[in-house]
Specification:
With 797 residues, the protein is mainly α. The chain has three domains: 270 residues, 3-Layer(aba) Sandwich (Rossmann fold), CATH 3.40.50.300; 152 residues; 200 residues, no CATH class. The chain is built from 24 helices and seven strands. A seven-stranded mixed beta sheet has the order 1-3-4-2-5-6-7, with helices on both faces. The N and C termini lie far apart (177 Å). Bound molecules: guanosine-5'-triphosphate. Guanosine-5'-triphosphate binds next to helix 2. This is Root hair defective 3 GTP-binding protein.
Length: 797
């Protein structure tokens, strides 16, 4: 009957797999998935592994299937040919036990080739905690029998296995348990006897082995523990056989059983998830006939697996933290970044620890450090990016808060505002930065803190300079306001001490301004140098303000008005301020000369800032005297300041121009005065009175006959009498004349300004300025004017 390659599985029975095939190839592709299918891939150290060795067709598969519920092939009774080829593996039912069914030794199929026997023994020794040696009872004591050959191989292999780690002799020994199962035990020879016979044989074999250097004196028990058990004949005594197998199973599944097989010290300490790689590499070593150095293999396995586990943990970690990049790159500050980074890193490390900590400890620790560095390296850009973004945000809010407080508070103390906002900003940065500062990193926030502090200082300095400028500008405005009135007053009434008054006012205003500056500068934390420079600028600008005000008050038209006013005061009003009415015998020429000359003498006074008291004159350094100032002028930041030049208001040419213009205006006044005299001496011819009586007789009679007209006449005569009696005729006349003249002059000026027309000659427009240039007579009046006046006088006479 042909062998069923896939026997029907009982419920819960695991599916077997061929781990190493008949061509001695390790089935790496299926092992890991199978392990997963068996549910053991995540078992860690929570599994056990045993293998069965023995002659071919000695019921090994039958025993394993009975014992563990595995599904290994069992030989068909009638064919008697080798069933198990290579090495098979299966999981036991309801137990975390992996069982290896190894191809039987001394099989006819492989002939004299002992190679696979040796390799499979080596492989089983390196991986299994317990080797079940299956033999018939009648084979016990047959030293030359096949089983002894197998055991010799096992011992040799064991020595080979440990040759590379002789140090193990001095340390705890990794022993392997050999469980001898004596089959078809008839019962006539007790187990103890069989056990003694086997032990004697084993020692003999051990002694006969040539041991490697350093292991010459070693005993078989240094490397092996032995257990012995018997099973009745399966065919003849099936129920006893089953019972014995049930008892034997207890040794595999019950840790409390005194003969418990899977004692922890036998465990090879290979985590289940590393088993595929480990067994594969062991098999590779076996196949290449290299000395099998298990510690090295375990270390290599640890390296391989730790790398695999670390990579798996890292790739999950990378996916988790990928989202941070977008936020950080777009300049956001993530509130929970520190906690999130810490959590993701812990998850990755925990994942690594869970699986990798089962491996070679040194390798695991080394790889953990590597992983930690890799994780930190991935998180580092987020940490730095967060600090950078935080830096920007804190800096911007510092600036905004300072500006807002300066806008919101009326009498703010700049130093206090900047100080509190600065410490607020620095504390905020430090607190937020510490949140992203993970433990177990070489990250630090000191550098970024120092940089932030510098930049805050930079902003504060710029703001302070701007604030100082603003404050100085405000003070300058106040200076201007303070100077306006005293300057206007002093210049309107020119006196010899005019400039003294102006400079006294200037000094007082400047002192006040400097005091205000110094008081405010204290809260600005300005340095001595800054104060010095600001005060110098304040003085300079105040002086320029004064000069600007003086310039405004001495502009051509303003100055002309001032001179005219001065002249009028002297020429047209008497000493008591009453308007003069010129009479023919008045000394108009003398009065005119005096008024004009006195007025002209004011021009030099206006032309230069020159106080009578020299001490009052403030002296300021020119740009050329101050190197800092000179450099600023050179850079184009400030205008050149030449103090001596600012004292001179008019040049000689301008002085002459002003004088000449004034003279012309004065001439007009002179003509007008003369004309008023002429009109006062003009008389009506006597015959005109006769004509008037003849022509007006009828009207006269109408007035006399009409009561209304007559009453009006009487009132008029009465008023005239009162005026005559009180001697008011003269003042009344001159006042009305002066009024008429003023009205005429103002109207004329307005029209002239409006139409910008040249002035008509004084002959036709009396009282208006004569624009004609002419020679001056001995009174300083032009001959043409005099000539014209004489002509008019003659006409009147
Ligand atoms: N006498 C006897 N025969 C048994 C016993 N157990 C199994 N057999 C028989 O021995 C034969 C071989 O059984 P297997 O379990 O295939 O033996 P094996 O050692 O696994 O064989 P290979 O895998 O081919 O080396 C089968 O026909 C079984 O019925 C036993 O306890 N006593």
């Amino acid at each position: 009957m042909p062998v069923d390659p896939s026997p029907t599985l009982l419920s819960d029975q695991a599916e077997r797999m061929q781990l190493i095939d008949e061509d001695q190839k390790f089935n790496n592709a299926q092992f890991a998935p199978k392990l997963k299918q068996w549910g053991l891939d995540d078992a860690g150290f929570g599994y056990d592994l045993c293998a069965v060795l023995g002659s071919q067709s000695t019921g090994k598969s039958t025993l394993l299937n009975k014992l563990f519920g595995t599904s290994f092939d069992v030989m068909d009774e009638k064919q008697r040919r080798q069933t198990t080829k290579g090495i098979w593996m299966c999981r036991g039912i309801k137990m975390n036990v992996l069982v290896m069914d190894v191809e039987g030794t001394d099989g006819r199929e492989r002939g004299e080739d002992q190679d696979f026997e040796r390799k499979s023994a080596l492989f089983s020794m390196a991986s299994a905690e317990c080797l079940i040696v299956n033999l018939w009872e009648h084979q016990v004591g047959l030293y030359q029998g096949a089983n002894m050959g197998l055991l010799k191989t096992v011992f040799e292999v064991n020595l080979g296995l440990f040759q590379a780690s002789k140090a193990k002799l001095n340390g705890p020994k990794d022993k392997t348990l050999l469980l001898f199962v004596i089959r078809d035990h008839v019962g006539t020879t007790p187990l103890e006897n069989l056990q003694a016979t086997l032990l004697a044989d084993l020692n003999r074999i051990w002694d006969s082995l040539s041991k490697p250097e350093g292991l010459e004196t070693s005993q078989i028990t240094d490397f092996f523990d032995f257990m012995f058990t018997t099973l009745p004949h399966k065919i003849l005594l099936p129920s006893e056989f089953d019972k014995a197998v049930d008892q034997l199973r207890e040794r595999f599944i019950n840790p409390k059983d005194p003969n418990f097989v899977f004692r922890p010290e036998y465990h090879k300490r290979i985590p289940a998830d590393g088993l595929p790689h480990y067994l594969n590499s062991i098999w590779d070593q076996v196949m290449s006939n290299k000395d099998l150095d298990l510690p090295t293999q375990q270390e290599l396995l640890a390296q391989f697996r730790c790398d695999e586990i670390a990579n798996a943990a890292f790739s999950l970690f990378s996916a988790d933290v990928k989202g941070f990049r977008k936020h950080i790159e777009s300049g956001n500050v993530l509130e929970t970044l520190g906690a999130d980074m810490g959590r993701h890193r812990s998850v990755a490390l925990a994942k690594f620890d869970k699986d990798a900590s089962r491996y070679h400890q040194e390798v695991y620790k080394r790889k953990r450090i590597d992983l930690l560095e890799k994780l930190n390296g991935t998180l580092s850009p987020f940490f730095l990016g967060q600090l950078k973004n935080l830096h920007k945000v804190v800096l911007a809010s510092f600036r905004a808060n300072v500006l807002e407080r300066m806008r919101g508070e009326v009498n703010y103390d700049f130093g206090e505002v900047v100080g509190t906002e600065r410490s607020k900003a620095e504390n905020r940065f430090a607190a937020a930065a510490k949140l992203v500062l993970l433990a177990e990193t070489d990250w630090s926030i000191e550098e970024e803190e120092a940089q932030l502090s510098n930049e805050i200082q930079g902003i504060a300095d710029v703001m302070r300079v701007e604030e100082t400028k603003k404050m100085v500008a405000q003070i300058e405005r106040n200076v201007k306001k303070g100077l306006a009135e005293p300057v206007e007053l002093a210049l309107a009434k020119p006196q010899p001490d005019m400039w003294d008054k102006i400079l006294v006012a200037f000094r007082s205003v400047l002192e006040n301004a400097e005091a205000i500056y110094l008081r405010k500068a204290k809260s600005f934390n300005c340095t001595e140098d800054e104060n010095k420079a600001a005060l110098a600028a304040l003085r300079r600008k105040s002086w320029l303000s004064l000069r600007a005000k003086v310039d405004e008050q001495t502009a051509d038209t303003v100055l002309a008005a001032k001179l005219r006013s001065c002249f009028e005061d002297r020429f047209r009003y008497d000493d008591e301020g009453v308007p003069r009415v010129w009479k023919p015998d008045d000394d108009i020429d003398g009065a005119f000369r005096t008024a004009r000359d006195e007025t002209l003498s004011l021009i030099p006074l206006y032309s230069r800032i020159a106080p009578k008291d020299e001490e009052l004159l403030i002296r300021l350094p020119s740009s050329s005297d101050d190197p800092v100032q000179a450099a600023a002028v050179e850079r184009g930041e400030e205008e050149e300041f030449d103090f001596p030049a600012t004292l001179q208001l008019f040049t000689e040419t301008r002085k002459a121009e002003i004088g000449s213009r004034f003279r012309k205006e004065a001439d007009a006044y002179y003509v007008e005065a003369k004309r008023s005299t002429v009109s006062s001496i003009a008389q009506v011819p006597y015959w005109m009175y006769g004509v008037m009586i003849v022509l007006g007789w009828n009207e006269f009679m109408v007035v006399l006959s009409s009561p209304i007209y007559f009453a009006f006449l009487l009132t008029l005569l009465g008023s005239a009498f009162v005026v005559w009696k009180l001697n008011l005729s003269g003042p009344l006349l001159s006042v009305s004349k002066a009024m008429a003249r003023e009205v005429h002059r103002i109207a004329d000026e307005q029209l002239r300004n409006h139409f910008s027309q040249p002035l008509p000659p004084p002959a036709s427009r009396p009282g208006v300025l004569d624009e004609r240039p002419a020679g001056i007579d001995r009174n300083g009046t032009s001959p043409a004017v005099v000539e014209e006046f004489e002509l008019e006088e003659k006409k009147a006479l």
